[in-house]
Amino acid sequence: MQHDVMTSPLRHALVVDDEPGVLEEIVDCLTHAGWVVDSASSAQAALAHLADTPNITVMLSDMRLPGMDGLHLMQTTLANRSESHALEVVFFTGHGSADDAVAAARAGAFDFICKPAPLRQLVDALERAHRSTCARRAAAPQAAQSVEQRRAERSALRHELEQRPDIGDFSAGVPSQLVRLMFTDLRAPLAELSLLQEGLNSPTDLPVAEVVRRLEAVQHAVTQLGTLAANFMQVLTTPQSLHDLLTDTPPAP
After folding, report:
1. pLDDT above 80 (res 87)
2. CB 3.0 to 4.6 Å from 109: which of 35, 76, 104, 175, for a disulfide?
3. Which CATH class is domain 12-133?
4. pLDDT by residue (tens digit) across 103-149?
5. Average of pLDDT values for 207-225?
6. Which of 168, 174, 150 is nearest to 244 (CA)?
7. Cα–Cα distance measured from residue 127 to residue 140, given in angstroms and rounded to the nearest whole number
8. Quick check: helix, strand or coil at residue 170?
9. What is the DSSP letter of 252?
């Protein structure tokens, strides 16, 4: 079933746990804190519920579940999920270790909390996750517009470059259109690094999962910059490879 998802301040959580007592306690706590709360006792039930309830902003899940475990549930939930349908995942488990927390963060978890923990800590984590979901959904249209704008700029520069009779001849200098084309492609990962620099300069303690996720994002942006720079260097030293640059689609942000 397809839905149009609008950014909303409504705090809507899906709690997934196969222990009825734990599930009831968490649902009661979140409901008392003002959340709309749905529940599921298995990964399969959670996936079916998510398919029909797009306004859920946070999924809180145990790691150990019957059948599909919590990690695979998260990976299935987040796979190919657009930013306009963004959702954050928080794990609350009695079977976690530091290695599990890092693995969960690398797979996309927002936070990882080990039982027993005060319910206030759990609510605070879900509040942060909800704000992150709302921010991602709100930014999605602008991000899509930015990608389209970058494609249009790249197409115009490519057309200008192809009209030059000296294309591929750098003896008199690198054509301005080519330089601008390079920096059009570099703009997205450079902007991402700038935002991440601010995010890592946090005045408060951060969950392990959140720090790992931010560092993974830094690593991705740096890798993308390195790949782009290497490709551009090859164009400058091997003008024949300019054709590949002109026919490539712009890199994803």
Report:
1. yes
2. 104
3. alpha beta
4. 888 888 888 888 888 888 899 999 989 988 888 888 776 665 666 77
5. 79
6. 168
7. 20
8. coil
9. P
Quickly state the pLDDT bin for 3 (edges 50, 70, 90).
Answer: very low
Give 195's pLDDT tier (boundaries 50, 70, 90). Answer: low
Q: What is the token pair recorded at 129?
A: 């996750």
Tell me the residue type at 197.
Answer: Q
Q: In sequence order, which residues have a C-beta less than 8 Å from that of residue 88 and are 6 or more positions away?
A: 57, 58, 59, 110, 129, 130, 132, 133
Cβ neighbours for 60, distance < 8 A, ≥ 6 positions apart: 13, 14, 15, 16, 26, 89, 90, 91, 92, 122, 126
- 184 CA to centre of own chain: 22
Cα 247 off chain centre by: 28
* Token digits of residue 118: 């005060």
Q: Which two tokens stand for residue 209?
A: 């999962």
Give me the residue spans of the domains in the chain. Answer: 12-133, 141-247
